[in-house]
Amino acid sequence: MATWVIGDVQGCLEAFEALLDRLDPDPARDAIWLAGDLVNRGPDSLGVLRRAMELGAVCVLGNHDLHLLAVAHGARPVQAADTFGPVLEAPDRARLLDWLRTRPLVHQDHALGWTMVHAGLPPEWDVATARRQAAEVERVLAGPRAPAFLSLMYGNEASAEEAAGSDPGWLRYTLNALTRIRCVTGAGRLDLAFSGPPEQRPAGLVPWFSAPGRRSRGERIVFGHWANLQLDPGLAARERIRHVDTGCVWGGRLTALDLQSGEVRSVDCRSRTRNS
């Protein structure tokens, strides 16, 4: 029995299929978890969404998935780098988008003792708090208020204080925290700009998982989003967390981690990721 967590696929269907071949999961025994950002930048977001649904994969929403939903609902224009056009033109578009918008932002498996999120948690939240805050956003995305909210989704609230007193602001802060966080300041404010390797971070920033006083310390969390972090097995010992985004869409690798055994398997993406 295995629970495989796969990092950011981002429309790279060929690499996704190659990794699944390596895993050879038994549908009766094994589970596939996807750490968000199923779509965008890679050549076949449509194929990835269809395959994820077919697998019955557990999936959390990432920032690129949310961007697709915003574009699909007319709340955001298509950007030059977006590659999910075929999803918007597909005959099963409604089914795919309805499935995507009802995915959670946080998935917790009490039996396994693991929580999956796309990017991370702000220092002031433990997993229980993150789940409560995520549930508010999930209810909006799954309901009739989704189009209106998606038009208000973009904003850079970087602290709970900035978000306080505003329903859209607080929902935006939750999205920023769960789908965009990499580093925070010493005061716990989210930094939403830096994306490089952690050793190159500007002075005054720390990775979210190293923040002093982090309330989720001691809880086992698996996440993606930060391709330049790569694999750091030491995180498991130091922080009880694991990272699975190894930059497939940028020509790196697509990686799966078995939460039960700790085994890691991956495939090279250099010839499998770009649009022609």
In short:
Helix content is 33%, strand content 16%. It has 276 residues and is α/β, with parallel strands linked by helices.
Topology:
Layout: E1 3-6, H1 13-23, E2 31-34, H2 45-55, E3 58-59, H3 63-72, H4 85-89, H5 93-101, E4 106-109, E5 114-117, H6 127-142, H7 146-151, H8 160-163, H9 167-179, E6 183-185, E7 190-191, E8 205-207, E9 221-223, H10 234-239, E10 241-243, E11 253-258, E12 264-268
Parallel strand pairs: 1-2, 2-3, 5-9, 9-10
Antiparallel strand pairs: 1-11, 4-5, 6-7, 6-8, 11-12
Describe the structure.
With 276 residues, the chain is an alpha/beta fold. It has helices at 13-23, 45-55, 63-72, 85-89, 93-101, 127-142, 146-151, 160-163, 167-179, 234-239, and strands at residues 3-6, 31-34, 58-59, 106-109, 114-117, 183-185, 190-191, 205-207, 221-223, 241-243, 253-258, 264-268. Strand 11 and strand 12 (264-268) form a beta hairpin. Helix 6 packs across helix 9 (167-179).
Key words describing this protein structure:
276 residues, alpha/beta, 5-stranded mixed beta sheet, 4-stranded mixed beta sheet, 33% helix, globular
Largest sheet: 5 strands, mixed
Give start-end ranges of low-pLDDT stretches: none
Helix content: 25-40%
Mean of all residue-level pLDDT scores:
92
Q: What would the principal axes of the Cα set say about the shape?
A: globular
- How many helices? The count is 10
Proportion of residues in extended strands: 15-25%
Strand numbers in spatial order across the main sheet = 3-2-1-11-12
Structural class: alpha/beta
Rg from Cα: 17 Å
Order of helices and strands: EHEHEHHHEEHHHHEEEEHEEE
Distance between the termini: 38 Å
What's the β-strand tally?
A: 12
